[in-house]
Amino acid sequence: MSAETADDMVAGRMSMPRGILKTARPKQWVKNALVFAGPVASGMLFEAGVIPRTLLTFLAFTLMASGVYFLNDSRDVVEDRAHPKKKYRPIAAGVIPVPLGYTLAGLGIGLGLALMAVVNADVFAMGVIYVLINVGYSLGLKNVAVVDLLIVAGGFMLRALAGAFAVPSAPSVWFNLMTLFGSLLLVSGKRSGERAEVGSDGATRKVQSKYTDSYLQFVREFSAAGLLMAYGLMAYQKSGIADGAAEVALQVSIIPFLATIMLLVQRMDSGGGASPEDLVLHDRGVQLAGAIWVICFMLGVYLGSGAVGV
Predict the structure, then answer these.
(1) d(Cα 142, Cα 136) in Å, to the nearest integer?
(2) CA-CA distance, 116 to 98, in Å (whole number)?
(3) Where are the domains of the chain?
(4) Which of 44, 186, 240, 257 is 20 to 30 Å from the Cα of 146, by its Cα?
(5) Whole-angstrom Cα distance, residue 154 to residue 303?
(6) Tens of pLDDT along 63-75?
(7) CATH number of 1-171
(8) What value, to the nearest 5°, has the Cα angle with vertex 275 and ends 274 and 277?
(9) pTM over cut 0.85
């Protein structure tokens, strides 16, 4: 948190609308772009109705995730007020009354689920599961080692699956494995980055004391390996039913994908994984490698005549 933000809160100059926006964590909304993974990978992004359904799913997850943040901050208000940094959060600082925080949590979650019901039943089911695991997380599962990693990773995975169901397209086993291992990679990197920032003793999460650096490194390494294996197999499977330039593009896409993962892991090992969204939004190396990979993959999928399906 910036000194300017902290000073504004201490001085009582933060307005309630601004406090509501900050509690909704707009920086985190980039995570919801995962809903586009399925439609893009399926080769059906530009089919009639797919983009509107995917955008609705994106908006639904944005509302639900923001609602979960309001729920967490409202429940943790006492602990946050005793924390040197979290005491400046709008609810802890008194900018947003706790009852209003719970109300906004319910509104965000309710509206998000309503939008998902409009898309289709499968997307709605993903939303219900997302809400249930996050309520459990808020009620105490966040303090259970390993379970907290799986819940946060599950949130990423549910976004990707919901996007695939919005097409609608049944996700392949390789797509499911990619989302699973990719999610675990991001979450383990996030926990490692948090430890690098404040150490396990002064960590903002109680569960950090139950992890070691070597354990998180182990999770990060096997997740990266699993992600690379799953993507490589998916790319070769798609290339086998593509033709010409599309086949080559899919096979070549493995190289920039590998570079992207290697850069992410390197940044995480350097302590920069605490905010995965910052790596996506601000790290030029990750952005460049990722952009080249996306271009190669989309050329392979959308130039090919047969590489359709997630």
Answers:
(1) 8
(2) 27
(3) 1-171, 172-310
(4) 257
(5) 32
(6) 999 999 999 999 9
(7) 1.10.357.140
(8) 155
(9) yes
